[in-house]
């Protein structure tokens, strides 16, 4: 099991009170999982938690097992010990992270941005460049390799960021609304690129999207947020016992 989470809580400061509750989440190796729900329900927050980039307020269990031949890691213990270095190393070695905004470095050209993570992970420059070029061709941005990020459209920056995340061949891909700025044709290309990379590296995919139909067409299992309200405010609940449930409006 790649992730095993029980009763994880993350609170957000809002006028009426809001908290995210991951009641139960088990992500097996090789998963193709889409976390769905309307804007503001906690999808991106969930991805940041899975990416070891956001500290939970509490959790009964939060384990991450990037290697099948090693015991799972206790993520709550890493946070308690302020092991930010260890978590950064885990992200670099095992995860490809696609942010919603792309986040290309403005002082590097597109080709350099695409190979950056792979080279930081120790991949030879020639191999990184070859992998990035192949992915860029698949996503229709190979003509932009020498361009600077400021000259690209939002959708082009997003596709370049996807190439950067996939180039190292990560075992786990985390993607935040990867097609939000794309038309249907390019959105289909993105799904094909994700699935191609997963098949080649026998990896896992967890993405968040408000477009459940797109995720289903790609063959991804869907896990939807459910909203609960009480005297303390609104709770966004994620529970894999309720997979494929319809997301309630926020």
Instruction: Indicate the CATH topology of the domain at 29-55 and 83-223.
Output: Rossmann fold
Radius of gyration from the alpha-carbon trace, in angstroms = 18 Å
* Oligomeric description of these chains: single chain
Strand order of the largest sheet: 5-4-1-2-11-10
Shape: globular
Structural class: alpha/beta
Proportion of helical residues: 25-40%
Give the SSE string.
Answer: EEEHEEHHEHHHEHEHEEE
Annotation, overall tally of beta strands = 11
- Distance separating the two termini: 31 Å
Brief characterization of the structure:
The chain is α/β, with parallel strands linked by helices and 250 residues long.
Descriptive overview:
With 250 residues, the protein is an alpha/beta fold. The protein has a domain at 29-55 and 83-223: P-loop containing nucleotide triphosphate hydrolases (Rossmann fold, 3-Layer(aba) Sandwich). It has helices spanning 43-50, 75-80, 84-94, 110-120, 125-138, 154-166, 184-201, 212-217; strands spanning 3-12, 18-27, 32-36, 58-64, 73-74, 95-98, 172-176, 204-209, 221-224, 226-230, 233-239. It has a six-stranded mixed β-sheet with strand order 5-4-1-2-11-10. A five-stranded parallel β-sheet has the order 6-7-8-3-9. β4 and β5 (73-74) form a beta hairpin. The relative contact order is 0.20.
How is the secondary structure organized here?
Layout: E1 3-12, E2 18-27, E3 32-36, H1 43-50, E4 58-64, E5 73-74, H2 75-80, H3 84-94, E6 95-98, H4 110-120, H5 125-138, H6 154-166, E7 172-176, H7 184-201, E8 204-209, H8 212-217, E9 221-224, E10 226-230, E11 233-239
Parallel strand pairs: 2-11, 3-8, 3-9, 6-7, 7-8
Antiparallel strand pairs: 1-2, 1-4, 4-5, 10-11
